[in-house]
Amino acid sequence: MTDNLFEEMDRLFHPQNMAAVGAADRIGNMGISFLLGYQKCGFQGNLYAVNPKTKAKNFDTYDSVTDIPGPLDEVRVAVSAKFVPDVIRDCVKKGVRCVSIFTSGFRETGTDDGKAMESEIARIARKGGVRLIGPNCMGILCPESGMSIRADMPVMKDGSIGLISQSGGIAISLALACRERELGLSKVVSYGNESDLGAPEFLYYLARDPKTSVICLYIEGTGRAEDLVAALKDAAGKKPVIMVKGGMTDAGSRAATSHTGALTGASEIWNAIARQTGATLVADTEEMLDLAMLFTLKGSPPGKNLGIITISGGFGVIATDLVTKAGFDIPELAGQTQAALEKFIDVPGTSIQNPVDMAAKFFNYQAFPEIFPAFDRDPNIDAFLMICAVEYLTFLSSQADKFATFLVEAMIGAMDAMKKPTYVVLLHTISEDIRLKQERFFIEKGYPVFPTVQRCLTAMNRANRNGQS
User: Fold this and answer.
1) Last residue of a domain, one of 297, 332, 354
2) CATH number of 143's domain
């Protein structure tokens, strides 16, 4: 990696203007989709359409990028593969910094013609000083800069999670999942076939990006194994790096090869790469985002002693089994804690042991400011699991949504006074719309939320093994 690579890469995430080659006013046209996406997300620079056959409504349209007046930083290409080499030549003439190629039909086809064409565009770009992303990719999404990857994407929340994905579809799904959960993004990139810029460069950049605190990587394979290992080790030495490897089985490996034309390799190799570099290899994108959320909001628990707070004794019993199997301990609460709780949680159906079963006293929200600090002062406990379900948040109220919000606000107000971390498990049961709304509210206030106890414990264990918090 060169000394000026960070500055060179940073400019790619902050262009002053963009042109989409192949933009046309047709449903499903990706060129116009890129332009509309930027417009929707508040991009402040100039946006141009390039199409010699038709004009794009509401955008200045030119026959070639060389006809566009003034400087041009970024070009997104959505034309047939056979036209791409000439587009890259025009971008070289224009002095474009970066070209993202949505077009497929290159190395991933497995044909000699596809491989040769990809080599040609890489050679033209390299000789002309243009950086390529792709082909076969969605390119860059950057909330801070108003950069988007599709017209129908919502405006993303600005934040500190960086996503690198070889797959365009995975990049879109991860970004949307973050938006759904109120998790903010710093940068997202889909890099496809890695003809030029790929995972090593984007890892290097995000490791040094002050806006990024956690890096998520979805990768199917690479033809640059040494560069990737070095970049992973460098990045994981600075920030948590969470990796999903697509194609870990023989069948998955064949699918990955046909998708991006990348060399994949056996699962043992990728497990070894994770161990050697310090990256955390997880099973799927759900686990990836759970762990990213944990790092972003609360980090790993400071110890193995957990306190469980629940409204249902049954949930507490199940959680106790899961917590114990996951390698955590559930110690008895200290005598002073039990004495303090007994003032508020002392009716049939409750328990002031660990797990604490609040039962009907869960609705005694006026006592939350005294109950939760009592938990926090317990010398035997390192962190807490708060387990609840929507049917309890909405109990005894015809105004279910409003009552749920009221109770959650009361909980958060009391939890904010606690020094020890609290992890929320808001179970999937009923009223998913209300559950999701309250999940977002917890996350917005800085509390990680999981739909199952097992997913919470998996993330906590992964975070502990990563060694960063």
Assistant:
1) 297
2) 3.40.50.261
Amino acid letter at 363?
F
pLDDT of residue 397: 57
Q: How far apart are CA 48 and CA 416, in angstroms?
A: 48
Distance CA(143)–CA(184), nearest Å, equals 9
Segments forming the whole domain that contains residue 259: 139-297
Last-in-domain residue among 297, 314, 334: 297
Question: Could you report the average pLDDT of every consecutive run of 10 residues in the chain (469 residues)?
Answer: 87 98 96 98 98 95 97 98 98 98 95 96 98 97 97 96 97 97 97 96 98 97 93 98 84 50 67 94 96 94 93 89 96 92 72 82 84 93 93 68 84 94 91 89 96 96 69
Place of tokens 């993202």: 100
DSSP 8-class letter at 359: G
The CA distances from residue 469 to 141, 232, 462, in Å, are 27, 18, 11
3-class secondary structure, 178: helix
Same domain, 164 and 45: no
Q: Distance between CA 56 and CA 77 in Å, rounded?
A: 15
Tokens 């977002």 locate to 440
Of the chain, the end-to-end C-alpha distance in Å amounts to 28
Omega cis (within 30) before 135: yes
The reported pLDDT for the residue numbered 361 is: 75
CA 151, chain centre distance (Å): 20
The whole-number pLDDT of residue 43 equals: 98
Q: Which two tokens stand for residue 149?
A: 């990857």
Whether 322 and 204 share a structural domain: no
Q: What is the DSSP string of 393-446?
A: HTTT-SSHHHHHHHHHHHHHHHHTT-SS-EEEEEE-SS-HHHHHHHHHHHHHTT
Same domain, 31 and 157: no
Residue 292, pLDDT score = 98
Tokens of 441: 């509210």
Burial 188-200 (b: 16+ CB within 10 A, else e): bbbbbbbbbbbbb
112 and 151: one domain? Answer: no
Q: 333: which 2 tokens?
A: 């609460």
